[in-house]
Design a protein that fits this description.
The complex is a heterodimer of chains A (about 500) and B (about 575). By secondary structure, chain A is of the alpha+beta class. Chain A has two domains: about 5-65 and about 175-220, Arc Repressor Mutant, subunit A (Orthogonal Bundle); about 240-490, BirA Bifunctional Protein, domain 2, CATH 3.30.930. Chain A is built from 20 helices and 18 strands. Chain A has helices at about 10-20, 25-35, 40-50, 70-75, 80-90, 100, 105-120, 140-150, 160-165, 185-190, 205-210, 235-250, 265-270, 300-315, 330, 340-350, 390-405, 445-450, 465-475, 485-490, and strands at about 5-10, 25, 55-65, 90-95, 120-125, 130, 170-185, 195-200, 215-220, 255, 260-265, 335, 355-365, 375-385, 410-415, 420-430, 435-445, 460-465. A seven-stranded mixed sheet of chain A has the order 10-13-14-18-17-16-15, sandwiched between helices. The longest helix of chain A is centred in the middle third of the chain and has 15 residues, at about 235-250. Chain A is elongated, with a radius of gyration of 50 Å. Chain A starts with 6 loop residues before the first strand and ends with a helix. The model of chain A has no long low-confidence stretch (mean pLDDT about 90). Chain B has four domains: about 1-75, Phenylalanyl-tRNA Synthetase, Chain B, domain 1, CATH 3.30.56; about 85-280, 3-Layer(bba) Sandwich (Phenylalanyl-tRNA Synthetase, Chain B, domain 3), CATH 3.50.40; about 285-355, Phenylalanyl-tRNA Synthetase, Chain B, domain 1 (2-Layer Sandwich), CATH 3.30.56; about 370-570, BirA Bifunctional Protein, domain 2 (2-Layer Sandwich). Helices cover about 25% and strands about 30% of the residues of chain B. Chain B is built from 15 helices and 28 strands. In chain B, the strands form six sheets. In chain B, strands 4, 5, 6, 7, 10, 11, 12, 13, 14 and 15 form a ten-stranded mixed sheet that branches. In chain B, strands 19, 22, 23, 24, 25, 26, 27 and 28 form an eight-stranded mixed sheet that branches. In chain B, strand 11 (about 210) and strand 12 form a beta hairpin. In chain B, helix 4 runs antiparallel to helix 7 (about 240-255) and helix 11 (about 370-385) packs across helix 14 (about 485-500). Chain B starts with a strand and ends with a strand. The chains are: A alpha+beta (about 500), B alpha+beta (about 575). At the A-B interface, helix 12, strand 10, strand 11, strand 13 and helix 17 of A face helix 8, helix 10, helix 11, strand 19 and strand 22 of B.
Chain lengths: ~500, ~575
């Protein structure tokens, strides 16, 4: 390290100067001199040591301190003197009563008796303590010595007295580390040209504006420490996924369509050529509404009549039809849409051709909720209409979906069934780990579906299992997790 | 979708396939009957089949399934044998049945050798067809009887409820009333008939009871055992076409099992039918449909000539007669699914093989637009997530308790909410008309997680509106933390309004869900568009959220700068 880059804080500099001025001072003494706490002084010493400006010498020293009995005696006086004072008034006392009469602890009583007998000031006969020599006080040097020790000047005590005090457990010795701080040659050399800076933990606008920041030292962070968690604002991961799917479809030229959650059977079933007694229209398969049970049929009577005719007779498209009496009342029943195809059916009305549409619709089925079933889920569905469309194009479109939406290159087609399409096809895409997974279905709308809307061109209807795609992507096995209530997961799951 | 179970070894034997044929190979073959192997356990000789179509009841048993597949493997070609010589048996129909259960079809099959396995397979077919295509026996139901115990003529009669016979599984006679109230099948299917009045019965000229259609067979005539070789099958129902179709389905299955079919003469009363009073069942004439090969080619684009189509259709078990500019398709009478030439187009495409079709390249050029609704909703989601609120996604179906009791209201006050008539559970029995209860529900499940918790949802809600029902979009936000109050939500609301380019005014409001003096209506141009306030601890207690919370909710259909008008159902 070059000398000119040596910069220290103001406080470090104060300590360094003190060390330079007063030689051989301990940390405690330096703390006293600088009037700063010992712990802080020690920290500054280490900071200076890290820059090789000071060094320390440590040695063990023995300190003499008062014991708790010693502290008591210093306050109350030696027990022998307390007993003397008592005997000067009473002359004699039963040995057994000394403790109670003087208020001395038992050990102190023994010490007092011992000292007074040694000086032949008392005698003890038949349990009676008798004063034999009138004396005011003894052992005054001991009392003075206790005071000296209490004042931290134990080195001035004679050894004989110290031993007496130690024997009577009025004082004790303790070993303690003594640290002497010395300035190093580098410290001496550097002292005149040290750069003194101030340490701060944060910059203030003023420090930047005034240029004061130049003389500041910023405390360094422990950058390995994990930071405090902050709650961020995020969009829902599943909705983000659906948004990405939408973007892909927009890129393919599809426009989005939306429709109501509560729908008439007309749009959901009749317009899609499902016979009114079709099993999919049973209460076990669709949710119906308590109140109001019925909605309104479309205002366009021509459309309603065309749907009625095609159900009853199959005309005008030469179909066998369903051959029953079509009920407008049944068609006006309300339900929670069980399929997104109702949205497609609405779009067929006044359709401008060519047309490509999609919708992501919340759909409902009367299922008990478990790991594979939800009462409500999302369906991605749509249509393509163009005079040039054929079944081979339908497969082409599905393959494009597999590549663009499911990011799969290999697909499998298999015959399928939908009441409203013919031919119908099931689409599976090759997943790198899971093998072929079923992810969509499609078909060409039957003429019985398109004729009432006066559409002469072929219409492809398609659907993609977006819930399934998302679960595969996230490795989710429980479908309930699509609507997860786990805040921590929502906050932390990677967006990618 | 209809599911049924078949035997792996039975399939191999019917299709003449070698031992060791893989499940995958069978699954591919079954796709030609729109069926798939859903589960399999070869140790147990078991394949579980899902048939995807509700319009192919002929494929709801192994006999019909393999009949289709034989055309693909080349085992068989063209129309299957549907012939039946007259048996001499007659069924006479009571005129009074016309308003109860008017139609019956029947056939006799002789020379069968039943095993326990085969009886179970045929009963499974019967059960599946009765349940789904027969609409739980209401529209049609099948009965099978030991022919040796029946004498012609047979009467299809209406009889008083006091009539008694021994039903299947019983040892003593029960009256028809007792059967409806005591017998398992009587309880299950009794609803098909009105509470009062005479009921259908099938008995021979001696009075031997065959069954009480469509409820239960008799215990002796109506019991098929491994000793039975000749059977009478009959189908009763409310739709003549359906009854006839089902008669051919069951007849054909038994014929496939080695029996020889004979017809039965049904004698209807005069003027009972629009057509002839005498009907011979089963139908021994194929149905016909004429197609124009050009239409098909234009529809499929598979580069097929009429001769190619003929070959493909024969693989689908059809006979084809070539005409000048058309093909006359003759198909078996059990194919109830063929309504239009597009269905024949599908048959051709299937026989061609979907995997043999080269998909075309993308070609329909259009410009894609996100809906105005989604664009509008995205603006709000963008702003609120930018305000550091976590977006959540909740169900639109909820429990009455959550939107009423938990919000300090009575359930009978939920008058604007749309309730489901046939809920599966109360938890999902009513549509939400607001988002706040869902958000509180969400927070109540996360009280162990780190605070602050700021959440929002933009979502569709549903409510009644002048005898109709509308779907519209709302947004709600809740902020919870130890140190949170009105101004925190107010700041965010204010930002939202600014970003949406509208001015809002708050007007003090007293509402039991919120704290007084800290609650306001959100007004835009003097119309209320929402509510904001500190949630009353009385409500928080119910959700066991012991943390101050402040919320707002806005009806986004009321914001003129967004394009989210309510969606109505008509």
């Amino acid at each position: 390290m070059h000398n000119d880059s040596l910069s220290i804080t103001k406080e470090m500099n104060q300590l360094l100067e003190a060390v330079n001025k007063y030689k051989n001072k301990t940390l405690d003494e330096l703390a006293e001199i600088l009037q700063i706490p010992r712990a802080k002084t020690e920290l500054l010493m280490f900071q200076l040591m890290s820059k090789d400006l000071v060094s320390r010498l440590t040695s063990l020293i023995t300190l003499i301190e008062l014991t708790s009995e010693g502290k008591r005696v210093l306050k109350a006086g030696l027990p022998e003197n307390l007993l003397l004072t008592f005997l000067q008034n009473q002359k004699k006392i039963a040995l057994a009563n000394v403790a109670t009469a003087t208020g001395l602890p038992k050990q102190a009583v023994n010490a007092a008796i011992g000292q007074l007998r040694k000086e032949k000031i008392i005698t003890i006969e038949k349990g009676q303590v008798t004063l034999t020599k009138a004396t005011q006080r003894i052992n005054e040097t001991l009392e003075e010595a206790l005071q000296v020790i209490a004042d931290n000047a134990s080195n001035e005590i004679q050894e004989q007295i110290l031993n007496h005090l130690l024997r009577r457990k009025l004082v004790e010795t303790k070993d303690r580390q003594k640290t002497i701080v010395e300035i190093t040659p580098l410290g001496v050399k550097s002292l005149p040209k040290l750069k003194i800076v101030q340490t701060v933990s944060k910059l203030t606008p003023d420090q930047i504006r005034t240029g004061e920041w130049r003389s500041l030292q910023l405390k360094k962070y422990k950058i390995a420490t994990r930071p405090k968690h902050i709650p961020i604002g995020r969009k829902h991961p599943y909705l983000l996924f659906l948004q990405e799917v939408k973007e892909k479809l927009l890129g393919l030229g599809f426009s989005e369509m939306r429709g109501p959650i509560v729908e008439t059977e007309f749009w959901n079933f009749d317009a899609l050529f499902a016979a009114q007694d079709h099993p999919a229209r049973e209460p076990t398969d669709v949710y119906s509404i308590q109140d109001p049970p019925y909605g309104k049929l479309p205002k366009d009577r021509k459309l309603v009549n065309a749907v009625k005719t095609v159900h009853e007779t199959g005309e005008p498209v030469g179909s066998r039809g369903w051959r029953y009496n079509w009920s407008p009342k049944k068609a006006s029943l309300l339900l929670l849409r069980p399929q997104g195809t109702s949205v497609s059916a609405r779009t067929l009305y006044n359709l401008e051709i060519p047309a490509k549409f999609f919708s992501i619709a919340r759909c409902y089925r009367p299922d008990s909720v478990d790991a594979t079933h939800l009462s409500e889920f999302n369906q991605l569905e749509g249509i393509v209409c163009d005079p040039s469309i054929t079944f081979r194009d339908l497969l082409g479109i599905l393959k494009t979906f597999a590549v663009e939406v499911a990011e799969a290159t290999k697909v499998k087609f298999r015959p399928d069934y939908y009441p409203f399409t013919s031919p119908s096809v099931e689409l599976s895409a090759l997943h790198p780990k899971l093998g072929y997974i079923e992810f969509g279905g499609a078909g060409m709308f039957r003429p019985e579906v398109t004729a009432p809307f006066e559409i002469k061109d072929p219409v492809i209807a398609w659907g993609i299992g977006v819930d399934r795609l998302y679960m595969v992507k996230r490795g989710i096995n429980d479908i309930r997790e699509l609507f997860t209530q786990k805040l921590e997961w929502l906050r932390t799951v990677p967006v990618i | 979708m209809v599911s049924y179970k078949i035997s792996y070894n039975d399939v191999l034997s019917i299709l003449n396939l070698p031992q060791g044929t893989t499940v995958e190979a069978l699954d591919d073959l079954f796709s030609y009957a729109k069926c798939e192997i859903e589960e399999h356990d070869l140790d147990d000789d078991l394949l579980k089949i899902d048939c995807k179509t509700s319009n192919r009841p002929d494929c709801w048993g192994v006999e019909g399934l393999t009949r289709e597949v034989k055309g693909i493997t080349g085992e068989k070609s063209g129309l299957p044998d549907i012939s039946a010589e007259p048996s001499g048996y007659v069924i006479k129909v009571d005129p009074r049945l016309k308003t109860v259960r008017p139609y019956i079809g029947a056939a006799i099959i002789r020379g069968l050798s039943f095993s326990d396995f085969l009886i179970k397979q045929i009963m499974q077919l019967q059960e599946k067809v009765d349940f789904s295509y027969g609409r739980k026996r209401k529209r049609s139901s099948i009965g099978i009887y030991n022919l040796g115990m029946v004498e012609s003529p047979i009467q299809y009669d209406l009889t008083p409820r006091s009539t008694a016979f021994v039903p299947l599984g019983y040892e003593k006679k029960l009256t028809l009333s007792q059967i409806l109230s005591q017998h398992e099948k009587g309880i299950e299917y009794g609803d098909i008939f009105p509470k009062k009045g005479d009921l259908p019965i099938l008995r021979d000229h001696r009075g031997v009871v065959l069954s009480m259609p469509p409820i239960i067979n008799s215990n002796d005539v109506g019991r098929i055992t491994e000793e039975t070789t000749d059977v009478l099958v009959e189908v009763t129902g409310t739709n003549l076409e359906v009854v006839n179709a089902v008669t051919t389905i069951i007849t054909q299955a038994l014929r496939d099992r080695g029996g020889k079919a004979y017809s039965v003469e049904i004698q209807y009363p005069p003027k009972y039918l629009d057509t002839s009073e005498i009907q011979i069942t089963p139908n021994t004439e194929p149905f016909e449909l004429t197609i124009n090969p050009k239409d098909i080619e234009k529809y499929l684009n598979l580069n097929l000539k009429p001769a190619d189509m003929v070959k493909l259709l024969q693989k689908r078990r059809f006979d084809v007669v070539k005409k000048k500019n058309s093909l006359l398709i003759k198909y078996p009478p059990y194919r109830v699914d063929l309504l239009h030439w597009v269905d024949i187009a599908e048959e051709i495409a299937m026989a061609y093989g979907y995997m043999n079709i080269e998909p075309t390249k993308w070609k329909v050029m259009t410009i894609g637009h996100l809906s105005k609704r989604s664009i509008s909703e995205n603006y709000v989601r963008e702003i609120l997530s930018g305000c550091a609120l976590q977006e959540v996604l909740t169900f639109t179906l909820t429990a009455p308790e959550k939107i009423a009791d938990f919000m300090g209201q009575k359930q009978e006050n939920l008058k604007n909410n749309v309730h489901i008539a046939n809920p599966v559970s109360l938890t999902y029995s009513v549509l939400r008309s607001r988002l706040l209860p869902n958000l509180l529900d969400f927070l109540s499940r996360n009280t162990h997680n780190e605070y602050p918790q700021y959440i929002f949802e933009v979502g569709e809600v549903v409510k009644k509106n002048q005898k109709s029902v509308i779907t519209f979009t709302k947004t709600a936000a809740v902020l919870t933390d130890a140190d949170i109050s009105f101004e925190n939500a107010h700041s965010i609301l204010d930002s939202l309004a600014t970003q949406l380019g509208i001015t809002i005014v708050l007007e003090a409001l007293v509402d039991s869900e919120f704290l007084e003096g800290r609650t306001a209506k959100i007004l835009h141009k003097d119309k209320q568009i929402g509510i904001i306030g500190e949630i009353s601890p009385a409500i928080l207690e119910k959700w066991q959220i012991y943390m101050p919370a402040v919320a707002f909710e806005i009806d986004l259909s009321m914001i003129p700068t967004l394009d989210l008008p309510p969606l109505s159902t008509s």
